[in-house]
Each structure stands twice: as structure tokens, then as C-alpha cells.
Design brief:
This protein has a domain of 59 residues. The longest helix is centred in the first third of the chain and has 29 residues. It has 26 helices and 15 strands. Helix 2 runs antiparallel to helix 9, helix 9 packs across helix 11 and helix 10 runs antiparallel to helix 11. With 652 residues, it is an alpha+beta fold. The chain is elongated, with a radius of gyration of 38 Å. Strand 13 and strand 14 form a beta hairpin.
Length: 652
């Protein structure tokens, strides 16, 4: 379980529930003609929705995308320059890196930087905050347990009595009656049997007061309000951080009492007399403290209850308005679903370092995120000093045609004020790269929550989600490696930007690859050149194969060209098996004109071993091994390569 994600889910659920509850309070407050039974049902539905919202935010809501703190600080607008990449079967171990971003600087950096830093600090302390909240919740549950214990002990201190009068409504649970001089107001002491306690002052008072109090408390028993209220208070103790839950609980406590008031009025037929009884009870409770924390009656609601009793426009019906209840619940559910999609973004660490110069490459907008000037160059440690730089998003796992591999699709978002964009990448990844996840976990029947990671030189992708039945989905977070940035810095390449380092992870670029380039005489590349290796699909396997071939220029751009024309490791290995070690430049040309290893093998079978240049000429004029074989079958002499090219050019 991700502590930061859980904290964000709690926060989002809290404000979403608060918005729903306050809005419902304003609207429902104006509907004076609705009876208490209907209002209780509507507020009950809203209470349940507010309880579920934090859970829904964690499990099902669109996950909050990461927003770069530095980007927010400088108001840099982001714009995508390339469509998302797709699978490439010949490059199973890496992703094709996404297009990079064009950033435009703007003002108001200090305030936004401070806000981003504060939010980042909160998320970094998510585990501590959650532990504090858990302790507070535990204390609140302990207080509730103390109150329940006090209530149960109070049952032993009362004097049992007979029912003052016959019940007019059936009560489907055991109920007994008692009296006590300690109690200044009537209440129900739960649980089984329910114990209705009537103060001695009311027993000795007027019959009208006793009658209305008796019917009111019996309605509590009939509705199981003692059990219901303890359960709700337990949930409220756990969800104390959610204002919507507490607001709805307060309204439910009020309407619970009003429903019992309506029952008393229905049995006595005298609302004014009952209002006087409530006023007298308010005076008694004001002068005498209750011996136990009352779990049903709240003095603060008395004034509101008296106002409703004396309001001629108020409805005191006990019948539930099903039509309004269903309509209101549906509106609340739809509104909650809409509000659920509004997520407060997670403010991550620095995703970019500083604005930098733009360069054009093959009609795509590119950018060297690291500034190489003496005034702007920083060390890798300084680059990471502003905090962990994080990308996050969602993932999907599915089957891959290649044995021992799994298709991993990553979707992520990047944003700045006023603009947001997204991208996705997908590739088959060897299962050996997944730490914490096995083929058994993936293939297991049923879905289970699991966490795993993919660790590469540039950083680690940490993921969690629901895995099983041959597939999976969930959320992921990229944590860049500070040592990777330091290694590039030590090799005088400069520190990479966060987007560049993310692209390095996607293409699985390794520091060892950089060292191999240098050992084989390749010119010193820039960080942007190395990122381009991943953009065009240059894998570590392809680099290792290409390094064994001679080259005239030996530049990273040449390696990029190798991948762009479709040269693969298998293509190079095929030529090597046939005894060919062409220059990289010739290999690119061979691929461009369509020379395949089977084409070369056809000539080898006929006793020819043309050079790379001759292979290109043969292919360009259309000489095929099958054509040569037919010509040899009726030729008096054995033509050489030049003869075959000349014959084809002359139309033979």
C-alpha cells in the first residue's frame, strides 16, 4: 500500500464529501415540507457515500497525475511533440521513449515553488501523518468504548419497573423499563434487552408528559436506534478526517430524534403539549448532569426540535417518501461519481531543471534540458537536491507472444498550469525484470493486490495494483537514480533533466553502454544524443552487436540511423554467420536497399561471396539468386559478379 497515494485519497475523499454534505445541507434545509423519515433516509445515503469516497478514491478514481514542482514554480507550459509509441517485437527489453517537452518560462515562481515544496514535504511524510491519524482514530474508538462500557454499567444501577402503559406499535425485540433518580432525561440503554430509562421526575409528573416520553423512547427501541447509533459513532471515529461524514452524522442524529417526536405526536395527537415537555426536559438537563455520556439524546438539538414541532408547515408523517428518496439518492450518487473524477494533483519533485535551448531534429521539436553554459551548469547532486523527481501513472499487464515476456503498457501524464498532456508506451518486457512478481502470481485464478518493481540504471519503477487471471492493472511511480545522474556528470556529459532520465529508464539505457561506446572509439555524445538512442529504438542488444562492426565515423547519430532503417541484432548476427563484417555505413545501406541474409545466403549457395558494395549493386539492378541459378543452368561459362550485373542491366 502506497502511503502517499492513501494520504491523497483521504484528502480527496474528505473535501469531496464536505462539498457534497454542505451542498445537500443548503438544498435540503429549504425543503421544510419533507418529513423527518424522508430526510433521515436521504442523509443516511449521503453518509454512506461520504464514508465510501476515500476508499473509492484509492481504488477506482483516476489517479492524480504528478505535477513538477519546478515546472509549477516557473509556469512552464508543456506540449507533446510525438504520438505514443507502440510495440516492437525486435526490441523486447525496452520501451520506445516518448517525445520530449517544449517548456516556456513564465512568472510567479516564488509562491508556487514554496507551495510545491510544502506539498512535496507533506507527501514525503505521508507515512508519519497516516500513523498520527491512526493514533487519533484509535483514541476516538477508545473513548467510544468507554462510553459504551459506562452505558452497560449504568444498566445495573437503575430500578426495574413495569411498562407505564401498553405499546401502540409492535416492537420486534426484547424491551424492559426502568427508572432512576440519577437520570434527568429519558433514554434507551442498549443493547439486549433494550432498557428504556424514565426519570423519577417524569414518572411522578403529569400523565401527558409521561405518555409522550414513553412513546418517543419506544420508537427508538423499535428502530434499533441504540445499535444504529453506536455503529455510526464507531465509523465516525475512524473517519474523523472526513467533514462530510461528520456533517451527515450530525444531521442523522437530529432527524433520528425528530422521527421519534413524530411517532409521539402520532400517538398523543398534541404537538404543543409535547413541545412543552421538550422545553421542560431542556431545563432539567441544564440543571442536572447526566450520569453517563448519552448515546441517543443531544441537548443541542432540542431547540431545533421544538421549532419543527411548532411549525405549522412542517410535516410529521411517519411515511417515507420513496420517490423523493430514490431521486435524491440517485442525484447524490451521480454527483459523487462526478466529483470523484476531480483529483488534487500530487506535487512531485523537480521534473525539469531549467528552461533550455530548443533544437530541431527530423521535423520533431526537441530540447536539451540540461544547460551546458558555465553560469547554468549544475552538479547531479544539485539537480536532485530539490527533492525526489517523480513521474507516475497507470499500468496494464497482458500476454505477450514471446515466451518468458509480459506486455507492459504505461500511461502517464505531465502538466503545468493551463496545460496538460499525456503519453503512453508499451513493450514486451522479460519477466525476469519484474521484482516481487512471478508468472504464478500473474496466472493465478482470481485477482489479488500485489506490488512489484522494475529496477534499471536510470531509476526504479515502483508499481502496485490488482494482478491475476493472466492480466493486471494499477498505478506506478518512477523514482530516478541519483547515482545514474552522478555517473553521467563524472563522464563530463552533464546532469540529465528529469524527463531525460525518465526516457533513459524507458529505453533501459545503461552506464556500461556509454563506457562501451568510448572503448570502441565513438565520439563523445551529449545527453540529448543518448536520449535519442531510446527514441528511435536503439536497444542495448543492438548497441552490443553494432560495436563489433568497423565504422568510419563512429558517432551516436550513426547508431541512431542503424535503428531507424530497421537493422536488428539478428540482422547483424546473420551477416556475421555468413562471414561478413561490413562497415556500419554499409550495413545501413544494405538494409535500405533491401538486402537480407537469405538473399546473401542464396549467392553463397551458388559459390559466390560478393562484397557489401557488390551486394548493394546486385540488389539495385534486380539480380536475384534464383535468376542466377537459371542462367547458370544453360551458360557455358561461370559468370562473375560484374558479368551478372551487366547482363541484368542489358535486359537478360
Amino acid at each position: 500500500m502506497n502511503a502517499a497515494s492513501l494520504l491523497v485519497a483521504l484528502f480527496n475523499g474528505a473535501w469531496q464529501g464536505a462539498v457534497l454534505s454542505v451542498s445537500a445541507y443548503v438544498v435540503l434545509r429549504s425543503l421544510r415540507r419533507l418529513n423527518a423519515a424522508t430526510m433521515f433516509a436521504v442523509w443516511g445515503a449521503l453518509w454512506a457515500i461520504c464514508v465510501v469516497l476515500p476508499v473509492a478514491n484509492y481504488l477506482y478514481a483516476a489517479k492524480p497525475y504528478t505535477v513538477d514542482a519546478q515546472t509549477i514554480g516557473t509556469q512552464q507550459a508543456l506540449s507533446a511533440t510525438q504520438p505514443s509509441s507502440t510495440e516492437h517485437a525486435s526490441q523486447p527489453a525496452s520501451f520506445r521513449a516518448p517525445s520530449r517537452l517544449v517548456r516556456q518560462a513564465s512568472a510567479s515562481a516564488p509562491i508556487r515553488n514554496r507551495a510545491a515544496a510544502a506539498l512535496r514535504g507533506i507527501l514525503e511524510s505521508a507515512t508519519i501523518i497516516l500513523w498520527i491519524l491512526a493514533v487519533v482514530a484509535a483514541v476516538r474508538v477508545a473513548i467510544l468504548a468507554r462510553d459504551v462500557r459506562s452505558m452497560l454499567l449504568a444498566r445495573r444501577r437503575v430500578r426495574p419497573i413495569d411498562a407505564p402503559m401498553a405499546l401502540r406499535r409492535s416492537v420486534r425485540r426484547p424491551v424492559k423499563f426502568a427508572s432512576s433518580v440519577e437520570f434527568s432525561s429519558p433514554c434507551v440503554l442498549g443493547f439486549t434487552p433494550a432498557l428504556v430509562v424514565i426519570p423519577e421526575t417524569i414518572l411522578l409528573g403529569s400523565k401527558d408528559q409521561l405518555l409522550s416520553v414513553f412513546f418517543h423512547e419506544c420508537e427508538h427501541v423499535r428502530r434499533f436506534d441504540d445499535v444504529q447509533n453506536v455503529v455510526m459513532r464507531f465509523v465516525d471515529a475512524l473517519a474523523f478526517v472526513c467533514p462530510g461524514v461528520l456533517i451527515a452524522a450530525r444531521q442523522l442524529a437530529l432527524y433520528r430524534e425528530q422521527i421519534c417526536d413524530d411517532a409521539a405526536i402520532a400517538d398523543t395527537g398534541d404537538a404543543v403539549s409535547y413541545a412543552k415537555t421538550l422545553a421542560a426536559m431542556a431545563e432539567w438537563t441544564h440543571t442536572s448532569r447526566a450520569p453517563i455520556p448519552c448515546l441517543i439524546f443531544e441537548r443541542k438539538h432540542l431547540l431545533r426540535r421544538v421549532q419543527v414541532l411548532l411549525d405549522a408547515a412542517a410535516s410529521h408523517s411517519l411515511r417515507l417518501d420513496w420517490r423523493f428518496t430514490f431521486a435524491a439518492t440517485a442525484v447524490l450518487a451521480v454527483t459523487a461519481a462526478l466529483v470523484l473524477r476531480v483529483q488534487v494533483p500530487v506535487i512531485a519533485g523537480s521534473v525539469v531543471q531549467a528552461p533550455s535551448s530548443e533544437t530541431a531534429r527530423r521535423e520533431r521539436v526537441d530540447i536539451d534540458i540540461h544547460s551546458h553554459g558555465a553560469d547554468t551548469q549544475t552538479s547531479a547532486a544539485q539537480t536532485l537536491a530539490s527533492g525526489p523527481r517523480v513521474f507516475s501513472g497507470t499500468f496494464e499487464l497482458s500476454g505477450c507472444a514471446t515466451a518468458g515476456q509480459i506486455r507492459l503498457r504505461l500511461e502517464y501524464r505531465y502538466s503545468s498550469p493551463g496545460h496538460s498532456d499525456s503519453d503512453d508506451v508499451a513493450q514486451c518486457v522479460p519477466f525476469s525484470e519484474f521484482r516481487g512478481l512471478t508468472m504464478v502470481d500473474l496466472a493465478a485464478g482470481g485477482v489479488a493486490h500485489r506490488t512489484f518493481s522494475i529496477v534499471r540504471d536510470a531509476g526504479t519503477m515502483q508499481a502496485e495494483g490488482r494482478i491475476g487471471d493472466g492480466a493486471g492493472s494499477g498505478t506506478w511511480t518512477f523514482v530516478p537514480s541519483s547515482s545514474f545522474a552522478a555517473e553521467l556528470q563524472q563522464r563530463a556529459l552533464g546532469a540529465p533533466g528529469a524527463m531525460q532520465q525518465f526516457e533513459f529508464m524507458l529505453s533501459d539505457f545503461r552506464i556500461g553502454t556509454l563506457d562501451a561506446l568510448r572503448r570502441n572509439g565513438f565520439a563523445k555524445p551529449s545527453v540529448a544524443d543518448l536520449v535519442t538512442l531510446g527514441e528511435v529504438g536503439v536497444t542495448n542488444e543492438l548497441i552490443e552487436a553494432a560495436l563489433g562492426l568497423p565504422s568510419q565515423t563512429k558517432t551516436v547519430s550513426e547508431l541512431n540511423r542503424v535503428a531507424e532503417v530497421g537493422v536488428t541484432r539478428a540482422y547483424i548476427a546473420g551477416f556475421e554467420r555468413l562471414g561478413y563484417h561490413p562497415l556500419l555505413e554499409d550495413l545501413i545501406r544494405l538494409k535500405e536497399v533491401g538486402v537480407t541474409t537469405s538473399y546473401v545466403a542464396g549467392f553463397e549457395r551458388l559459390g559466390y561471396h560478393p562484397s557489401a558494395q557488390e551486394l548493394m549493386r546486385l540488389k539495385e539492378v534486380g539480380v536475384e539468386p534464383s535468376w542466377v541459378e537459371r542462367e547458370l543452368s544453360h551458360a557455358a561459362t561461370h559468370p562473375n559478379i560484374e558479368d551478372m550485373i551487366r547482363m541484368k542491366e542489358q535486359g537478360f
